[in-house]
Amino acid sequence: MSDEGRRPQVSQYGSVDPAPPAKVPEVTSLTLQLCDEEQPMFQRMRAVFALRNQRTDEACLALCKGFTSESALLRHEIAYVLGQMQNPVALPNLIARLEDPEEHVMVRHEAAEAMGAIGDRSVIPSLQKFVEDPLPEVAESCVVALDLLAWVEGSEFEETEW
């Protein structure tokens, strides 16, 4: 195979993903691959991107099952792709990740940003709770998400004090 066929491709979301999407189309099989702690991380990531690319509620909820993973890296990537999908069905799971003080800081930060990217104003109270979180990654991500929601709404804003 030529080197050309092995270069990372830009996804339908405009990102270059850390793994190509798996070619398996069944959500059940992809969910099993995603949640199998014995699978290599690369294969689990392939399941993440294959599920994201399906753009369905079922695939979105399958991704949310991955939040049980032992890997903070995988949970972070799941939160990121849920933001890309912009599917409100993920919001309860993202809120739970943000509000869990035991969750890794990078997962909490990515959950906050994904909540803003989804564009549903119902998450404002959850985001507002954490704008003064002692972890700056979480606090700043909540401010960014709130500003994004204000921008989507068409509101004018200038460094709002939340």
Secondary structure layout plus pairing:
Layout: H1 27-35, H2 41-54, H3 57-65, H4 72-85, H5 91-99, H6 105-118, H7 124-128, H8 136-153
Helix pairs in contact: 1-2, 1-3, 2-3, 2-4, 4-6, 5-6, 6-8
Task: Explain this structure.
The structure is a single chain. This protein is mainly alpha-helical and 162 residues long. The chain is 57% helix and 0% strand. The chain is built from eight helices and no strands. It has helices at 27-35, 41-54, 57-65, 72-85, 91-99, 105-118, 124-128, 136-153. The longest helix has 18 residues, at 136-153. The chain is globular and about 45 Å long. The mean pLDDT is 90.
Q: Keywords, please?
A:
162 residues; Leucine-rich Repeat Variant; mainly alpha
Q: Which word captures the global form? A: globular
Q: Say which CATH homologous superfamily is assigned.
A: Leucine-rich Repeat Variant
Q: Give the distance, in angstroms, between the N- and C-terminal Cα atoms.
A: 54 Å
Radius of gyration: 16 Å
Order of helices and strands: HHHHHHHH
User: What is the CATH T-level topology?
Assistant: Leucine-rich Repeat Variant
Residues in helices, as a percent range: 55-70%
What is the mean predicted local confidence, pLDDT? 90
Q: How would you summarize this macromolecular structure in one to three sentences?
A:
It contains 8 helices and no strands.
